[in-house]
Every structure is written in C-alpha cells, then in structure tokens.
C-alpha cells in the first residue's frame, strides 16, 4: 500500500518541504506579530537539548551565565558607530511604559554588546578581574522583513557570549577556542552537521568586530546556513565605554573583547541538513526522544510489555517515550514518529510478544526488522552511535560532492546557482569580485586556508573564499 | 580583632541590609532603564539551580516546555475584561519596528495567558488532546513604579505554566498539584523556606482567575513574600478565545484552565529568609557552590592539596569551587565567601597540611573547627544535610513565633505593624475588614483551614485569614 505523501517532496519545492516539516512534526507555528514564532513542545525539546549540550561546553571553556536587561536606552545604541549602523534598521522601540510616554525610548535588545559593556566598564578594575567570561541565554529582537521560521525571525532565542581580556592574543585565542571547542565540537559531534570553519570577509563581518569567525553548513538544497559566529571585537567597544583595567605595572589599559553567538536558527539548520521526504531525522546524541516504544494494539500484555521495555531502555540511559495511545490508529502514530525523526521506533503487538521479538524501525538508515526484545537495551545504544556517525558522514559527503574549485567569478556564480559551493582563491576574487557575486545573490561564506584551517589574516597566502547562496 | 561590618546590620535598616547583600555578594545590579536589573553570575547561578530543580518537578507533573512570543498584539489584551483591567497600567508598548511605526502596537508580555490561549484554541480539537500541559521559561515585563531588585522589577524571569483540561475537577486538581507537589515541595525541601499554603481572598486573586492558590513566606523582618501562585482560571479565557474540544459524546465543550508561576522574586525571598548580618546563607541543596576549598598561602604543596581535595569533594558529588587566588588577601576572600553564603568553607595552609587537617567553617550554624582532611569527602555531605534541615527549622520557628491568633481588625493590624502575622477568622474579618486593614497597608496574605490545609472555598467553615504586611 503506497502512502500518500505527507510532505511536499524536497525535489519539488524545498522551501515548502521545510514549512511542511515544521508544521507536521509540530515544531513551531507562526506568531501573531509578523515574523515571530511559537516554538511547540517538540521543537522546544530539541532546543533544550541544544542548550544543555552547548551550556556544558561553554562552562567548560570557563564562562559563567548571567542575565542583562531586555531594554536598552536608545542613546546606548549610538556609542559605537559601526554597530549602530548595522542594527538601526532592525530595532524594535518601546515608547510607552506604565501608561506614560517614556522620557527616553528603550530599544529591545538586538544583541547585548552595548549594555554588557556598560557593566564590564564598572566590573573590571584590575588585571585580576580578567579574563571576564560571561554568557547569556536570552531572547533578542531584530525586525525581519522576510521572516522564515527558525531561520530569520523577528524574535529568536540564543546564547551570546561576551568576554574581556588583558591582551589581543588572549582575546583572539578565546574567540578561536569558542569557535572550535564549543561550536564546531557541538555541531559536528552532537548535531552531526558538517561545518566549514573560516573567517568572514571584511564585508561580511559583524558590525563593530575586527574579525568574525564563522561555521557554515551546507543544507540539502546546496545553500549555506551560517550556524554560529565568534567575533574578535578588538578595542572598539572598550573605547566606546572606556572599559579599562589597571595593569600589573600600574597603567590603565583598554581591554580586548570577544562576543559569540548561536541561536534557534540551528534548529532550522538541523531540519535542512538531515531531513528527508518522510520528515526530520534527529541525531541520536541530540534527540529529546531517542527511542519510542509503540503498542500496536490495545492488549493488556502488549501494554505491560511496552511499559516495561520503556523502563528497561530508560535504565540503559536512553531517552525514551512510551506510546500506548491505542485509541489513535497505529499507522497514524507510526507516521507521526517518523515525521518527528525519532531515531528508533520499537513496535510491539501480540504476535511479537509470542515470538519474543519487536519490530525495530531505524529512522536514520531507514528499514525495519525484527529484533529479540530482550536484547534491545544492550544493542540499541550501539546502533544509535552508528546512526549518529552516518548522519555526519552523509552531511560531509553532500558538502564535498557539491563543492567545486573554480578560477573565475563567472564559474563561482554558476556553481552557486547550480546549488552548491565554489572555492576560489581570495587573491583572485577580492572585494571587487565579491560585489559582482552579489549581483546574483551569491556571497562569500568564509575564507579558509588551503589545508582547511582558519587563515590568520584575510591576505594570508593561499587563502580561499568559499562562496554560495545562503539563508 | 573585630571586623568592621561589611553590611548594614538587619536590625538597623532591613531594606538597606537587603541592598547591601545584593551588591556585596555580587548578586545583581540595577539596570540602566529604571526598574530593570542585571543578574550577575553568582545570582544567576542561584537562579539556574532554582530552574533545574523546578523544571524537573514541572516535568514530573507532566508538563512540557514551549516558547511563545514576547510581543502580543495590543488588541489581544482586551479580550478578557478583568485581565486587561489588571494589567493595563503596567504594560510596555512597542510602537516602532524596523524603522517604521507599526500598524498595530505590540505589548511586551506581562504574562502569556492571552497569546497562549490563542494557540490552545487551535491545538485543542478533541478530548484526546487534553489535558494540555505547557510550561514556559521566559522574561516578562510589568512597568514598576517602586522597583526593588528581585522583588519588584520591570523585567523579571519566571516560569509560567498554562494548562487546559476537560473538566473543572481535573483543572482544580492540577492547580492544587502544582501548588503542593511542585512549588511547596521545592520551597520547603530545596529553598528551605517555610511557606504557608492557602487560597487568596477574592480581592487578592489573579486578574481573570476563579481561584488563586498561593505560597507565603515570612521574611526575617516579619513581612510576607508571595513566593508563587497557582490559578484556577475556570472557563474565562476559554470563552474569550472560544477554546473548545469535541467530547467523547460528540459535543463541543469549553476547556477548563489553570496557570501558575514563580519568578526571580524567589531569589529575594531566599535572601530575606536565610540572610544574616554576615551575608547570605544558601541552603546546600540549592547552592551552586556547596563547598569552597581555599588555599591560605601561595605554597606549592598547599596549592596541590586544595586542588586534589577539590577533586575529591567533586567526586563525592558536591558542587565545589577551588579558591587558589593567593594574590588576593586570604581574609578578603574568606569574607567574600561568607557574604556569598557558601555552606562549607574549607581552609588549608602549611600548618594544616603538616597536621593532616583543614579548618572547616560552616556558614549556616556558624563556627569553625579543624577536621581530618582525609575524612572530609565522607563527612561533608551529612553535615550539609544537617545545615539544610536547620535552615528550614529556623524559618518555621521564626514564622510560628511571630504569628498570633487575634479576634479583631485592630489586633490584626497591631500584630502586622509590630512585624509579624496575625490569624483571624475570615468570617469575622471578611471583605469589609480587609478594606480596613488596607488603610495601614496590611493585607490578607491567604485563607487557610484551621488544620493548616487549603480551604475548598472562601466561606468554608473555620477558615482563617493570615494577615500581614507584604513585599
């Protein structure tokens, strides 16, 4: 019996497939104010797992969480010239509070460099206070003209790190550490998303930064998604807020700073990296539900077994859900779990019970086979690790197979428009070539060294530009 | 050598002591927009621990986390008459976004009943979708004319639960379950704050609720702090949003709802319940740092031992910090940890090392004595449990010793103004007496049954009003 397609096939209309998955897997809805979103429990469960994994890595890097206000006095935004220019068009402004017009309007934070630097300038007194390593989990608002759930929303959730250091080198090394040990490690080893690590071209840098490190993932349609960024801010904000420390030798020195962020946009990246025509595929290490045990029929012995098996799998350390809603047709439930991308679906009916088996459907490689039910708790963790590795391998192979080395702007544009990335020597492309790419909405995603490492400077010999279309 | 007092003594000026603790223990700063706050890492660490403990209990009660937008169309706020009247004076309004005046202004959520009900009305179709149990961790904004850090801030962090049920009884029972199994359990067994559980008088109910359950703690100055509330919303919001379900018999019925919340205000309650003239005292089960191991001197063997002891204590399951900042005077560091209320301070110097001992300072009972350093990992967990129990006992004894049974409004007012609570039969007090109390800023904190349970109705026989002044 052929199933009617629940989703628009990716090949027919990728953006529509994306919207379909988000709606059918109950990840999110559009909010009532244009560009906002409601993150539904399953979507939020994925975000919570991202938070847990990221938070542990951020703390291991030495940063501590704090919370700064949502509202920023409008006058703060003008203190750093490039920064205000970058964010002014996207600001939401509160003009009334408590029934009165405010003396000074407040801006809803689009990012917190400004307000955090105000406090850093008070907290940092001596070199003993450095490095100061702060992270914040928060909502931010950037008014979006062309919103798209998870990818570009007027309000989104994120973490933003902000640090102050005594020296340029220490700040540079910390930005690089976050880039590699926190972000790349999480994306490759938990999200199973192959990412290219590089530095942004000057035109693509964060407003107010002296260097922006980025992680770029290739989505299944060949477009790029910026999955996270880590910025060296130099002394730009320190100068604006006069953030100085007393050095060991008694001089008053400006601090060197970094900031770095990742957001709910990663949920969009997850969907577009691993999803297929049957829905999401969630990497096991991330999955809020790694295995679901389904009762096929409303039978007391079946119900008892799915519940005890659920407990066994949970004892084995797996995140498990038991689906004993036998008042909902089995086929509908199976399709729902498939849409939600739960890695392992274990189905038990009366016949399985008699045979001592269960049907195991593996969402990531696909396929369905009977397994000895008593062996599941010991076998499943290993299978899930195989699935995890498979997703990363598929993501990497996809990116490699769709990346071509080219020599001219024309070839680079053609590769991008064909649904892939091009690598071209930055010395040949340069800011001029970058402008020509822009005519076809093609951008420099990042600059990389020939050996795949992150170049120490834009003009380091052998630097390549990775170009493509982007979300 | 007598120490100069670091804090204003509680007896001299309690509000100033409170501000001193917040500042000296580095819990929070005032934000630049009036009424907002910056939660510093140590204060946020306490909030994170509250979140972890609460979140586990909320999930155990069956609710799942989700996220709804910060911005609510202004028109939504008017849908439920009492609700809009309750919140209108406190709203912050966004009139401009993306450089343009908005067609419809957006309100920054003061609470999310309105927006969540909009989605509940779409998600709830049949009785199979019920109960729908949602929780959200978020920031909310209520414009505050007389702000006070953690207690009343224009922006605060909280969790808000929102549920929909098929029957009145199911909704009522769930509101009661959150009240007791989530909130009271957390406050008594983790925060070590003795709370009185009761129902609000009609005048003190949440705007739009048919019943509000509350938890009231007595602060060290004898004033009350509302630590959390759980509301039965009846069908008021369901009617406003036409949130209906198809019953098993095929009729379309309005849902019954609850909402419930606790916030960063609990941090204020923690400070004012357990703090003393030397600073905070954090209950061990909550404490982000349960034990700190201090190197008294910059000596290689001492440093090696504090680090290895830190690792031993961490292996024993304790949350530990090692303080090896020997470039800061030891006395200053000891006072800082005392201010921060870390339950156990373990000090090691060269002489301790030679004797195989460490000095153990216990913040909660007070006092300092040498202990065998090798025994610490096995002894400390038990001592911390004793400290936890002591804090709850002190909180309970304080409340009981300052609560008096009275018969008249005059006596009730006198008891409250003397710095305590009074219990008075609600049948004698009633809404008229409640108004007279208000002339002296005394309020009915809650209604309780004679046996201490929560009355099933305002007019249940034997119902007592607990009255006092409140934050």
Report on this structure.
- The first copy, chain A, is α+β, with helices and mostly antiparallel strands and 471 residues long.
- The first copy, chain A, folds into 3 domains: 14-274, Bira Bifunctional Protein, Domain 2 (BirA Bifunctional Protein, domain 2, 2-Layer Sandwich); 291-383, Anticodon-binding domain (Rossmann fold); 406-468.
- Helix content of chain A is 35%, strand content 27%.
- The first copy, chain A, has helices spanning 14-24, 41-60, 81-87, 113-123, 168-189, 236-241, 265-274, 300-315, 330-339, 350-355, 376-401, 409-417, 426-438, and strands at 28-30, 37-39, 64-65, 71-73, 92-97, 100-108, 132-141, 155-165, 195-199, 211-218, 224-234, 244-246, 252-254, 256-263, 291-295, 320-323, 344-348, 357-362, 368-372, 403-405, 421-425, 443-448, 464-468.
- In chain A, a hairpin with a 5-residue loop joins strand 12 and strand 13.
- In chain A, helix 2 crosses helix 5 and helix 12 (409-417) packs across helix 13.
- The two termini of chain A are 38 Å apart.
- The model of chain A has no long low-confidence stretch (mean pLDDT 96).
- Chains A and B meet through strand 2, helix 2, strand 3, strand 4 and strand 5 of A and strand 2, helix 2, strand 3, strand 4 and strand 5 of B.
- Strand 5 (92-97) of chain A pairs antiparallel with strand 5 of chain B, so a sheet runs across the interface.
Return the CATH topology of the largest domain in chain A. Answer: BirA Bifunctional Protein, domain 2
Q: List how many beta strands of chain A DSSP finds.
A: 23
CATH superfamily of the largest domain in chain A: Bira Bifunctional Protein, Domain 2
The helical percent of chain A reads: 25-40%
Estimated structural class of chain A: alpha+beta
**How much strand of chain A?**
25-35%
Assembly of the depicted chains: homodimer
Largest sheet of chain A: 7 strands, mixed
Number of domains of chain A: 3
Largest interchain contact? A-B, 57 and 57 residues
- Rg of chain A is 25 Å
Strand order of the largest sheet of chain A: 3-7-8-14-11-10-9
Count every helix of chain A, treating DSSP H or I runs of 4 or more residues as helices.
Answer: 13
The termini of chain A sit apart by: 38 Å
Family (chains A, B): Belongs to the class-II aminoacyl-tRNA synthetase family. ProS type 3 subfamily.
EC number (chains A, B): 6.1.1.15
Subcellular location (chains A, B): Cytoplasm
Keywords (chains A, B): Aminoacyl-tRNA synthetase, ATP-binding, Cytoplasm, Ligase, Nucleotide-binding, Protein biosynthesis
């Amino acid at each position: 019996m052929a199933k009617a397609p629940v989703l628009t096939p990716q090949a027919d209309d990728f953006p529509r497939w994306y919207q379909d998955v988000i709606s059918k897997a109950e990840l999110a809805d559009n909010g009532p104010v244009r560009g906002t979103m409601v993150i539904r429990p399953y979507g939020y469960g994925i975000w919570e797992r991202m938070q847990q994994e990221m938070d542990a890595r951020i703390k291991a890097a030495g940063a501590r969480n704090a919370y700064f206000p949502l509202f920023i006095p409008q006058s703060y935004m003008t203190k750093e010239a490039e920064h205000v220019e970058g964010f002014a068009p996207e600001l939401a402004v509160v003009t009334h509070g408590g029934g009165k017009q405010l003396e000074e309007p407040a801006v809803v934070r689009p990012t917190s460099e400004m307000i955090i630097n105000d406090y850093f300038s008070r907290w940092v007194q001596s070199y003993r206070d450095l490095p100061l390593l702060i992270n914040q989990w928060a909502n931010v608002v950037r008014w979006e003209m062309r919103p798209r759930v998870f990818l570009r929303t007027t309000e989104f959730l994120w973490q933003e790190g902000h640090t102050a250091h005594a020296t340029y080198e220490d700040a540079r090394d910390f930005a690089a550490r976050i880039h590699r040990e926190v972000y790349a490690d999480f994306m490759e080893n938990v999200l199973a998303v192959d990412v290219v690590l590089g530095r942004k071209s000057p035109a693509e840098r964060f407003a107010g930064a002296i260097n922006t490190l980025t992680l770029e993932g290739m989505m299944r349609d060949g477009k790029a998604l910026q999955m996270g960024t880590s910025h060296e801010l130099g002394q730009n904000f320190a100068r604006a807020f006069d953030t100085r420390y007393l050095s060991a030798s008694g001089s008053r020195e400006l601090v060197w700073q970094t900031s770095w962020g990742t957001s709910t946009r990663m949920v969009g990246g997850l969907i577009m990296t691993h999803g297929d025509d049957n829905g999401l595929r969630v990497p096991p290490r991330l999955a809020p539900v790694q295995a679901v045990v389904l009762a096929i029929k409303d039978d007391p012995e079946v119900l008892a077994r799915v519940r005890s098996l659920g407990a066994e799998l949970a004892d084995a350390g797996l995140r498990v859900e038991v689906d004993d809603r036998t008042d909902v047709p089995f086929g509908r439930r199976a399709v729902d779990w498939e849409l939600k991308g739960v890695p392992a679906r274990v189905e038990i009916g009366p016949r399985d019970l008699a045979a001592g088996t269960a049907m195991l459907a593996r969402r990531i490689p696909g396929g369905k086979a009977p397994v000895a039910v008593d062996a599941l708790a010991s076998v499943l963790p290993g299978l899930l690790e195989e699935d995890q590795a498979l997703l990363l391998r598929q993501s990497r192979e996809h990116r490699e197979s769709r990346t071509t080395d080219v020599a001219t702007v024309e070839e680079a544009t053609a590769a991008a428009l064909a649904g892939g990335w091009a690598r071209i020597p930055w010395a040949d492309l340069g800011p001029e070539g970058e402008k020509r790419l822009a005519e076809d909405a093609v951008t420099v995603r990042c600059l990389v060294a020939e050996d795949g490492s992150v170049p120490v400077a834009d003009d380091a010999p052998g630097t390549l530009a990775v170009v493509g279309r982007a979300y």
